[in-house]
Design a protein that fits this description.
The structure holds 3 protein chains of 3 kinds.
Chain A (H helix, E strand, L loop, with lengths): L1 H4 L12 H24 L7 H6 L4 H34 L12 H14 L8 H19 L8 H23 L2 H11 L8 H28 L3 H6 L4 H23 L5 H13 L3 H25 L1 H4 L5 H23 L1
Helix pairs in contact in A: 2-4, 2-13, 4-9, 4-11, 4-12, 4-13, 5-6, 5-7, 6-7, 6-11, 9-11, 9-13, 12-13, 12-15, 13-15
Chain B lengths: L1 H11 L10 E3 L10 E3 L2 H9 L6 E3 L23 H6 L4 E4 L6 H9 L4 E3 L5 H14 L3 H23 L4 E8 L4 E3 L4 H8 L2 E3 L8 E3 L2 H6 L4 E4 L7 H5 L8 E4 L12 H12 L12
Parallel strand pairs in B: 2-3, 2-4, 4-5, 6-8, 6-10, 10-11
Antiparallel strand pairs in B: 1-5, 6-7, 7-9
Helix pairs in contact in B: 5-6, 6-10
Chain C lengths: L4 E10 L2 E11 L4 E5 L6 H9 L6 E6 L2 E2 L5 H5 L2 E4 L11 H6 L14 H13 L15 H14 L4 E5 L7 H16 L3 E5 L3 H7 L2 E6 L2 E7 H4 L2 H8 L3 E5 L5 E5 L4
Parallel strand pairs in C: 3-8, 3-9, 6-7, 7-8
Antiparallel strand pairs in C: 1-2, 1-4, 4-5, 9-10, 11-12
Helix pairs in contact in C: 4-5
């Protein structure tokens, strides 16, 4: 139908039905699973799947279970967190340019690790602990400082200010550190996926399950919230409470992701936008779809970083690959949008 | 409240991150190591000095020695590739530990690869490393020999320096920012050996960012350039307090590689410390 | 039969500063009220306060016998619906999705509509003659079409009290009249409605009662037939008005002709 092709007419008038949701989310789940399978099979080490599956003590099995699988799972968790939170925040803040870091979580995490590095605390525990502490601290500050519940933009403004503040402190700290140490922070900040232990992954998965679960639960009310506070209230939505839940869940989800992977950009911006073009603005569909799409996107980006190893004798930080992939994609998206409007 | 909370950490800045003691991670190696991967050029130097170069199967991407030119690269200091290392099936990995490579190195160990963590901050670290790696490679005598060589060289140099007047010296690792040899590291110790007083003894760590003003105030007699990039060196040379000093450069980078090359570095340092022959220019390559 | 809305000496405004005060009125079931007045006289503010999204500065408001503050948001949304002035949501939704949002107070967490809900929504679209907009994306629609969808959404809520904020803005004459006709039809079946209007003639044609607001005060309130004369309206708008009666008996008011 030409109308549908030009986006004038929707394929069907009501786009969120249980049947359609199952179909679409199922497809995306398959995509994510496929990405993970690919990521597990390919890499620097030539994996012999047969050996890996039959001989548990072989190097192949250890690489598969100890390296590839945890990394793929981590990529999926972080990608899901960033994209789903990004989608929810874009709706909540009614700002299509909102990314998951906009609430100050990124500044807090970066500040936490930078200070930990500078104080030599990183031998006590890895950067993740300090990043999480910093992120949670920022969350508390940003959500507590403004009238986050009452005003849609208070949290956004406080977050932006906090990020700027954190950035300034980090720059100051960087000048006091040696170039080696600075190199370490820069590498972490650029966003990387490492090899986390099963225990860490389990905790991370638990956090994401809860946080993203809350986001999905609120997604229906989130749709209504985009109408504006007054209209949403007139439709029976508990505005302040909904906003509060979404802010907390999104912040927690992003904190949990950033703590493990640093600041991986573009995932939280691109994936929701792409999916919105395809699926429409209904958050009941977009939140879970973004989670699945984000997982697939990041896992593939990470696979690319590993495939680039022979070229540079280094894996570029995955944040670089998402930017290189995401940047042109974003420009194309805008192009298409303009073409329609 | 926030300001106070920030001031405290800033005051503590510059505390040297403790690299931890020399230790083994992962399973105990069965016999002497036959397939060795090194993650730092200093450690490659060590293996080569022990005469076990043929056992190397992988090195870091910063390794420039011709002997290892054909070996696969497995990553850098902060980002070694666990898969690349494991893929070479090594029975020993030599690592200079740091906060950045902590997790990848632990992952290697968890996957069943023995990893030897060798901090190389002080001369004592270097001696211990020479002995430990010698033992792990089944070249205990060579390791012992290397260590004793360095110890002997040091005591001889110290002996000679007793007869000279102490020289106030500053050793510069980099100019942008100004990074100098501070207290506690091997550079500081070697400076002591050659009879130089390290004017930057009040710096926060052994490899420390130093303020230019403070450097000027210390009025060094000798400034040793150990940087790889000149950067703003000329500007610094023109500054009052620094232009009166004698500026010398290290002929090569042996002093920067903690390892067997320190012996050579020590000799170079001693040669530079001795006052120059009258009228001619400073000792510069 | 208790009053749908009872307001007593109500003062409404923002941040403690009243925009309109001393409003006392009582709305019975099955009546259509028109609120008239110059721009800035507090009409929208009054509606928002009745709706409960703006806190009254002073005075009392009771809806269906219960004080406003005691109402549960969701419960209230099942009985009171609002047609706002502008659409500020995401324009990526379709017409039907927008109208289905009106069913939200009757639905659960996910807002999944059942057959009945879909029927009500489609019925509302049909009543306003905009069924063809069901599958259209809102961003492609004109301001008037969006207003009609907002009105349909409010009808889909199946309220007992309908608040309309300048519902006829952006609508062509046909749709202005048909919208008010539909509302009138429902009012005749028992719905109560309060509509902010700019056209006194439409008020005269459709409303039972009127509330005249000027400079934050009530200039008059009561039966439309008696209040909507040229003199009073002229005082309301600060403009000389003339009166005429059509052949069909409709009384019209218009600005004095200028030469």
């Amino acid at each position: 139908m030409s109308g549908a092709a030009f986006g004038l007419v929707a394929v069907q008038p009501v786009r969120f039905t249980p049947a359609r949701a199952v179909l679409l989310l199922g497809t995306l789940a398959l995509l994510a699973a496929g990405a993970m399978v690919l990521s597990v099979l390919l890499g620097e080490y030539r994996l012999h799947l047969g050996v890996a599956l039959t001989d548990p003590s072989s190097a192949d099995a250890r690489v598969l279970l100890g390296l590839r699988l945890p990394r793929a799972v981590l990529g999926a968790l972080v990608g899901a967190a960033l994209a789903a939170s990004g989608s929810a925040l874009q709706a909540l803040l009614r700002n299509p340019l909102a990314d998951p870091f906009v609430l100050g979580v990124s500044g807090g995490a970066a500040l936490g690790t930078t200070l930990a590095l500078a104080l030599g605390l990183l031998v006590v525990a890895g950067p993740s602990l300090f990043a999480f502490a910093g992120a949670v601290g920022a969350m508390v500050l940003v959500l507590g400082a403004g009238r986050a519940r009452s005003s849609p933009y208070a949290a956004l403004l406080t977050g932006v200010v906090f990020n700027a503040f954190a950035s300034a402190v980090i720059t100051c700290v960087k000048t006091l550190l040696t170039p080696d140490q600075v190199g370490e922070i820069l590498y972490w900040l650029a966003g990387t996926l490492g090899y986390e232990r099963l225990r860490t992954l389990a905790v991370a998965a638990g956090i994401q399950a809860v946080a993203l679960g809350v986001l999905w639960r609120e997604s229906g009310r989130l749709n209504l919230l985009t109408l504006g506070d007054d209209e949403a209230a007139s439709l029976g939505v508990p505005v302040r409470r909904t906003r509060w839940w979404v802010l907390i869940a999104a912040s927690l989800s992003v904190a949990g992701a950033v703590a493990l992977s640093g600041l991986i950009g573009f995932v939280g911006l691109i994936v929701p936008h792409l999916l919105r073009l395809w699926l429409g603005p209904d958050q009941r569909l977009l939140v879970p779809a973004s989670a699945l799409g984000g997982a697939a996107f990041l896992v593939i980006a990470d696979l690319l970083t590993r495939l680039l190893f022979p070229v540079f004798h280094a894996e570029p930080p995955v944040g670089v690959v998402t930017a290189v992939l995401g940047g042109p994609l974003f420009v194309w998206l805008l192009h298409r949008r303009e073409g329609l409007a | 409240m926030i300001a106070a909370a920030l001031l405290l950490p800033l005051a503590l800045l510059g505390a040297a991150p403790d690299a931890g003691p020399l230790r083994l991670l992962g399973p105990r190696p069965a016999g002497e190591a036959r397939r060795v991967v090194t993650l730092a050029p200093s450690l490659t130097d060590l293996v080569l000095a022990l005469g076990a170069g043929e056992r190397l199967v992988g090195v870091s991407r910063f390794d420039e020695r011709p002997e290892v030119a054909s070996l696969p690269r497995v990553g850098g200091f902060v980002d070694p590739s666990v898969e690349a290392v494991v893929g070479l099936h090594p029975d020993l990995v030599l690592v200079q530990p740091g906060p950045g490579n902590k997790r990848p190195v632990e992952a290697m160990a968890e996957l069943g690869t023995p990893v030897l963590l060798l901090p190389l901050d002080t001369v004592a670290d270097v001696l211990a490393a020479e002995r430990a790696v010698g033992k792990a490679l089944g070249r205990t005598e060579e390791g012992e020999r290397l260590a004793r060589q360095l110890e002997t060289a040091r005591s001889e140099v110290r002996g000679r320096s007793q007869r000279r007047k102490p020289v106030r010296a500053l050793l510069v690792f980099g100019f942008d920012p100004l990074v100098v040899a501070g207290p506690g590291g091997f550079a500081d110790e070697l400076l002591g050996d050659v009879g130089a007083t390290n004017v930057a003894a009040d710096a926060g760590s052994s490899y420390a960012v130093y303020s230019v003003e403070r450097a000027i105030l210390t009025r060094p007699e000798l400034i040793i350039d150990a940087a790889d990039v000149p950067g703003s060196k000329e500007r610094l040379r023109a500054m009052p307090g620094l232009r009166e000093a004698r500026w010398v450069s290290l002929p090569d980078r042996s002093l920067l590689h903690p390892g067997p090359a320190l012996e050579q570095g020590l000799a170079q340092l001693e040669a530079l410390i001795a006052p120059p022959p009258p009228p001619r220019s400073e000792a510069r390559p | 039969m208790s009053a749908v809305l009872h307001a007593e000496r109500l003062a409404a405004g923002h941040h403690g500063r009243p925009v309109v005060s001393e409003v006392s009125l009582e709305i019975s079931p099955g009546t259509l009220w028109a609120v008239l007045g110059p721009n800035g006289s507090g009409k929208s503010t009054l509606l928002r306060t009745i709706l409960g999204v703006l806190r009254p500065i002073s005075g009392e408001v009771r809806l269906f016998g219960m004080p406003l503050a005691d109402w549960n948001r969701r419960e209230l949304a099942r009985r009171v619906a609002w047609v706002p002035q502008a659409f500020e949501g995401d324009p990526g939704f379709t017409g039907l999705e927008l109208v289905l949002m009106g069913r939200a107070p009757h639905l659960g967490t996910w807002g999944l509509p059942g057959a009945h809900d879909l029927a009500v929504a489609r019925g509302a679209l049909e009543a306003l003659e905009v069924s063809h907009l069901a599958g259209r994306i809102v961003s492609t629609l004109s301001g008037g079409e969006r207003r009609l969808l907002l009105a349909a959404r409010a009808l889909a809520q199946e309220p007992e009290l309908l608040l309309l904020d300048e519902p006829t803005a952006f609508l062509d004459l046909h749709h202005q009249v048909s919208l008010l006709e539909r509302v009138r039809a429902r009012v005749n079946q028992g719905l109560s409605a309060v509509a902010v209007l700019h056209d006194p003639n439409l008020a005269a044609a459709f409303a039972d009662q009127v509330l005249l607001l000027r400079d934050g005060r009530v200039l008059g309130q009561g039966a439309a037939a008696s209040l909507l004369d040229a003199q009073r309206l002229g005082a309301l708008y600060g403009l000389p008005l003339a009166e005429a009666v059509t052949a069909g008996g409709a009384r019209l008011v218009a600005p004095e002709a200028r030469r």
